[in-house]
Specification:
The complex is a heterodimer of chains A (about 220) and B (about 400).
Chain A lengths: L1 E12 L2 E13 L4 E5 L6 H8 L7 E6 L2 E2 L5 H11 E4 L11 H11 L4 H14 L15 H13 L5 E5 L7 H16 L3 E5 L3 H6 L2 E6 L2 E7 L1
Parallel strand pairs in A: 3-8, 3-9, 6-7, 7-8
Antiparallel strand pairs in A: 1-2, 1-4, 4-5, 9-10
Helix pairs in contact in A: 3-4, 3-5, 5-6
Chain B lengths: L2 H14 L1 H37 L5 E6 L22 H6 L6 E16 L2 E10 L3 H4 L4 E4 L13 E4 L1 H8 L8 E4 L2 E9 L4 E2 L2 E2 L4 E4 H8 L6 E6 L5 H15 L6 E5 H44 L1 H9 L4 H37 L9 H17 L2 H8 L3 H6 L2
Parallel strand pairs in B: 3-10, 5-7
Antiparallel strand pairs in B: 1-11, 1-12, 2-3, 2-6, 2-11, 4-7, 5-10, 6-7, 8-9
The chains are: A alpha/beta (about 220), B alpha+beta (about 400).
The complex binds adenosine-5'-triphosphate and magnesium ion (MG).
Adenosine-5'-triphosphate binds next to strand 1, strand 2 and helix 1 of chain A.
Chain lengths: ~220, ~400
């Protein structure tokens, strides 16, 4: 489903070049649940951004669902992001002026989906992520765990095949973190591909496939 | 993205940043209101002047002594050499023209008008019986000056309504006598209230026969001659005839100025229209200022909403989506501001109208159209840069900053 070959990502800071990713080769099958770990600055977020088509590699080839997406234009990339990829962030990134429901609705609004169809999907998502009672609340009226659940529901609203989560529990206490992980794992059980970046070994260990990055290189790739 | 969703999204942004929204609405509103109110005042002044001339009487041609090089200028500001006097005989000779219906020679001076112990300084008008028809004025009580040979006069006069009230109070005035200088006149009529008309308040004048005025002010020279052409189409002919007749009488000298109402009206119309446009344009500058304000606010919004824009991109928004959102916001602000401005401008116009009921203040249609249009165009123009900047924002960078 995903095939990365020889992915390089180089940042230029002044005269210096920072190699965030060096020759990464990675193949991910549909329905896999993988964790990406490694020291700070090892390139985890960069890899996730490349996977999510938010960032373009300087070299290498990226195939998503059998299609080469390396050379796609911005608008086409946005369309693929909209339809096939869901993001979950450490800091939730909810729009503060919008209610939980309106936040969840955003990707569907951008995709131009009919209001009636949106309403159907919203009702299902709100029920699924236990947010019915919070639908009309704004982010500042929600707990961290609830915010992250809203963010996950938002990521799922377009029925993506790939869910990318960058330290989704990094801003939550242990208990709420477990809760959020359970929600993400449910997505995996329903057949979604889930990739999680984390610093927490316990959470990393829950994944069936564990990837370790050091200095922009994949140094370990364990499958159960 | 659906259009209704775009509107709703922009609406939510406007609602989410209330103070900012209100400030821009205020700036836009003031700009639009200023254009509307200022142009309403200009247009009101124009209509007022046009009406003033209209009330002079139709088909009116004014003959005054002295040659003016600039045709159609204001009668009061005419430049000319010391002219030959315009006499009563000159005036009477104008009746020879087949295009002339009536004439009214005019002498104007200030007189000390006395009744018993009361006295009042008023403009005194010496003219003939036809004056009232030429000027299309109405008589309130009694009648106007009697017709007859203008060279001989009866000791009668017609007074303005205000003069009557001031000299006699509530007492009946018809048949009473008054004195102007050392002459006595019997009051035969009172003019109907009409108010201001071209610098004369006809409520405040005393009208006496021409010959009496000649004696009073000790002059043969006419102030001017009012001529009524037979019809609107005859005005041009009348003008030519008048010039020709006087030229022959004045040994070939073209030493009079003939003003037609149309020419005067047109000049005023042009000047005042230009003036209205100019002040409207100046007021429109405030709209440009509002546009710059919008640009600033939008640029701040791009910085302030970096994370949001990055997020929208991560969720699959294209550059076009982002730009559309910004432009929708700008247009909504402009429309809202324009609506407020039109409402306030209209209210202002009504308020000034209350203060000066004589002047017909109405914003000209072009101002009502141009002001909101300028508001929308400036706000869209000034949103181009911020919208572009937002659309080009790198989502990774935008999201990585806390
Ligand atoms: N926009 C950028 N400009 C310059 N250097 C960058 C940029 N983004 C990332 N880097 C560098 O690339 C390297 C990898 O960064 P990345 O954010 O992927 O690390 P990470 O593994 O996610 O770290 P952390 O665990 O702290 O989040 C780092 O050395 C970082 O400094
Ligand atoms: Mg990171």
């Amino acid at each position: 489903m995903i095939r990365l070959t020889g992915i390089e990502r180089v940042f230029r800071v002044g005269d210096e070049e920072v190699h965030a990713l060096r020759g990464v080769d990675l193949a991910i099958e549909q329905g896999e649940y993988l964790s990406i770990m490694g020291p700070s600055g090892s390139g985890k977020s960069t890899l996730l951004n490349v996977l999510g088509l938010l960032d373009r590699p300087n070299a290498g080839r990226y195939e998503l669902n059998g299609r080469d997406v390396t050379g796609l234009g911005d608008d086409e990339l946005a369309r693929v992001r909209r339809e096939a990829i869901g993001f979950v962030f450490q800091f939730f990134h909810l729009v503060p002026r919008l209610t939980a429901e309106q936040n969840i609705e955003l990707p569907m609004v951008l995709a131009g989906i009919e209001p009636a169809e949106r309403r159907r999907r919203l009702d299902r998502l709100l029920a699924e992520y236990g947010l019915e009672a919070r639908a009309g609340h704004r982010p500042d009226q929600l707990s961290g765990g609830q915010c992250q659940r809203v963010a996950i529901a938002r990521a799922m609203s377009m029925g993506p095949t790939l869910i990318l989560a960058d330290e989704p529990t990094g801003n939550l206490d242990r208990h709420t973190g477990q809760e959020v992980m359970a929600v993400l794992e449910r997505v995996h059980h329903e057949g979604g591909t889930v990739a999680i970046v984390t610093h927490d070994p316990e959470i990393g260990a829950r994944a069936h496939r564990r990837i370790r990055l050091v200095d922009g290189e994949v140094v370990e790739d364990k499958k159960e | 993205m659906r259009f209704t969703d775009l509107l709703r999204f922009a609406w939510q942004v406007l609602g989410g940043y209330r103070t900012r929204t209100l400030l821009i609405l205020l700036a836009m509103g003031i700009g639009v209101a200023a254009v509307v109110a200022v142009s309403a005042i200009g247009e009101g002044a124009r209509l007022y002047v046009v009406n003033q001339f209209g009330s002079l009487g139709t088909n009116l041609v004014i003959v005054l002594p002295g040659r003016s090089e600039t045709a159609g200028a204001m009668p009061g500001v005419l430049m000319g050499k010391t002219p030959r006097d315009l006499t009563l005989d000159d005036a009477l000779s104008l009746k020879r023209s087949p295009s002339v219906l009536r004439i009214a020679p005019l002498i104007v001076g200030a007189g000390d008008v006395r009744v018993g112990s009361r006295s009042r300084e008023t403009p005194v008008l010496g003219t003939t019986a036809e004056f009232i028809q030429v000027r299309q004025m109405d008589i309130g009580q009694g009648r106007f000056l009697p017709p007859g040979d203008p060279r001989h006069s009866q000791p009668v006069c017609v007074i303005g309504a205000k003069v009557a009230a001031e000299l006699f109070g509530p007492r009946p005035v018809l048949g009473e006598w008054l004195r102007i200088g050392d002459r006595r006149f019997r009051i035969v009529g009172v003019l109907a209230r009409q108010g201001q008309s071209l610098g004369f308040n006809t409520d405040e004048i005393v009208v006496v026969p021409l010959a009496a005025a000649q004696a009073l002010f000790n002059t043969e020279a006419l102030f001017r001659v009012l001529v009524e052409a037979k019809s609107r189409e005859q005005i041009v002919n009348a003008k030519q005839d008048i010039e020709e007749i006087i030229r022959l009488r004045h040994e070939g000298e073209r030493d009079i100025t003939v003003i037609t109402q149309d020419a005067v009206l047109e000049t005023f119309d042009r000047i005042l229209r230009a003036l209205t446009l100019a002040v409207g344009g100046i007021a429109a500058i405030s709209l440009a200022v509002a546009g710059i304000l919008i640009m600033n606010v939008m640029l701040i919004a791009v910085t302030q909403r970096r994370k949001e824009i990055g997020l929208l991109k991560a969720l699959g928004a294209t550059g076009r989506h982002i730009r559309a959102a910004f432009f929708t916001e700008a247009v909504m602000l402009a429309l809202g501001g324009a609506a407020c401005g039109l409402a306030v401008g209209k209210l202002g116009q009504l308020a000034i109208g209350q203060a000066f009921p004589n002047i017909p203040f109405t914003a000209p249609w072009w101002a009502v159209v141009a002001a909101p249009l300028t508001a929308i165009v400036t706000s869209v123009l000034f949103t181009v840069v911020p919208a572009k900047r937002a659309a080009m924002l790198d989502p990774v960078m935008a999201l990585s900053k806390r």
